[in-house]
Design goal:
heterodimer, A: alpha+beta, about 60% helix, B: 2 strands, about 65% helix
Chain lengths: ~80, ~140
């Protein structure tokens, strides 16, 4: 999971954002506790998660917020 | 759905210690695996700290850290602080304060000296805790502007 996550974010942001392991582990635990992701299964000591409905809602809200920010910057 | 490994573990209530250490081992392995996936090699544990290392050649030019975010780093510091605080608080409440009370009841010069010593220790503790609180506020403000 961590391999996929850290490599994927690096790819998506063209190397701008690299998530460090300490932060990553804590974030995943918190998100699971808050019900944003749920544990599916374990593969070779790695936990596989999937986003929940609540997680999707939060994600959409956050994307809208970033979009509004971007628009206000472009209009300024 | 291939490649799933199902583990059935049977623990009676009397084996809770065994179950606890088994789960702790699982979490420890996941933790080490997360770091490994980000390129960090696990070295050892020492006094409650875990040590990892990563070759500079693997760092893509930046100086990578284990925490890339202020909030998570602050959480880690709080955790370390609490772990160190608990023994100090135990000493404060189980030794220093009771001793001050006990020694003040007896009216001999030796006990007065003892009471004075414990009062001084109490003063040192108070100064330490105030210093911690001030430092924490400064650090916190430094991060959140």
């Amino acid at each position: 999971m961590a391999t996929l996550l850290s490599k994927k974010t690096e790819q998506l942001t063209q190397g701008e954002i690299k998530i460090s392991p300490g932060t990553l582990y804590g974030s995943l635990s918190k998100m699971e506790k808050d019900g944003l992701i749920k544990f599916i299964r374990e593969e070779e000591k790695r936990k596989i998660y999937r986003i929940t409905d609540l997680g999707t809602q939060v994600l959409n809200l956050e994307m809208k917020r970033i979009e509004h920010l971007y628009r206000s910057i472009m209009e300024a | 759905m291939k490649d799933t490994k199902t583990e059935f573990k049977f623990f009676t209530i009397f084996e809770w210690k065994k179950e606890e250490s088994y789960l702790r081992e699982q979490h420890k392995n996941e933790y080490i695996q997360t770091f490994y996936d980000c390129g960090w090699e696990y070295l050892q544990n020492f006094f409650g700290y875990s040590y990892f290392r990563k070759a500079v050649s693997e760092m893509d030019g930046t100086e990578e850290e284990i925490f890339c975010d202020d909030d998570s780093r602050l959480d880690m510091m709080k955790r370390v602080f609490r772990k160190r605080m608990i023994p100090l608080l135990c000493i404060l409440f189980l030794i220093i304060i009771p001793q001050i009370i006990i020694q003040s009841y007896v009216n001999t010069p030796e006990n007065h000296v003892l009471a004075a010593i414990f009062c001084i220790m109490f003063g040192v503790y108070l100064a330490l805790f105030i210093a911690f609180a001030v430092q924490y506020r400064k650090y916190y403000k430094g991060i959140y502007r």
